[in-house]
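Hello, quick one for you while I still have it in my head. My current little project is about how a certain protein chain folds up. You're getting the sequence in one-letter code plus the fold written as tokens. Would you mind checking whether the tokens look sensible for this chain? Here's the protein in full, and shout if anything looks odd to you:
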Amino acid sequence: PKTILNVAVIPPTSPSCQSTAPLNPPSLPPPSHTSSSYCIILSLVNKNMKFFKNSKIAQLIEQYHAFMSIAIVVAVFISQILGIHDADKFTTISYYSPIVRDGTTIDHHLKGWNDVYFIFFCINAITIGRFLLRVFLLEPFARYRKANKTTSLKLIDSGYFFIYYTFATVWGYYIFRDDEWWFHTTHLWMGYPHPMDFDTKIYYLVSLAFWIQCALSFFFEPPRKDDVAYFFHHILTISLIVSSYYFNFFRVGSAILIQQNVGDVVYYASKVLNYASYESAATACWIFFVFVWIFTRHIVFGVILWSLWVEVPVHLDRTWDPEQGYYYSSTLWYFFTGALAALQGLMLFWFTLILKGVYKFLRNEKAGDSTDMSDEEEETSTNVKEKKKEQKKEHKKEHKKPTSSKKQKTK
């Protein structure tokens, strides 16, 4: 039976099923105020996001944002050549402060507002890199595969994310390959606060710049069915990176970034193969992605969340001494635990969508991502928008006609 507005509509299958009695479904509970308000808030947020994505401002920014980034980067290099004060902060890692322990010098960097210059430069550099990949690699590949307009846009975005996550995964493994926290989570917390070397700092700042650029370019990407959850994931990730960087918990932050990137590599690889019409390879890659998702997003991430809940109170003293780099209190512990639990909740939400794809695959249907909008859905949405525009134009014309007749009468 179909349920529409809490009224059960049962299609009659035989004359004996037809009855003149009113429909009264006692099994359906009345809607709660919290759930209805929550749905209203989500619908309003989703409408505002779609409105901004289709606005003229978003279209202008989408057309010229790469050239704006190119102009900013060129201006930075020109200012460095001219010797303008503070121009080197955009391309250098600031606050080098080595530590001497037992006669050995340890590479260490502090934090400060000069890091914002480097993050700003990285955001524009990533924007330029994304533009160059689209023009010289991804768009020719989409034309080679003869993809239509909507599919080519999805192929370009998925190809860019596949390239970045592959690079970030290999880079992160190269930096932290010798660390002991890969198989012993206690080393994520022992020796806190940990010294931040050059490689760790640049990896963290580039990751933060990437996620900020993703949040900014979200409004120019193809629409998704989970736009609200997707954008909330960007904001939550940025807040976690900033807070863990400021409070010197970058070891656990780096571990989370690497294990998240591994799953995204396989995810966007399956999407690229799907949009490029490599159906058999896309299906095999998507099945492999399901197992990678379960292992990285729920098992490995669950171990990190368990370590935060159980091992942190054992290995860390609750001391708050910013001058010595100690930032640990019960409030901060609850904040990180709640934020990571919210991230796990988002991943469980996406896991339900993955299970829908598994169910379709078991029913001998095409396996794929349940968050994407199909071409038919996008065409219907664009047709509805065009009809609304035409109705507005006709409505304006109808209002203009009587005014012209009145002028003729007065003449």
Q: What stands out?
A: Confidence is low (pLDDT under 50) at residues 1-38. The CA atoms of residues 145 and 276 lie 6 Å apart.
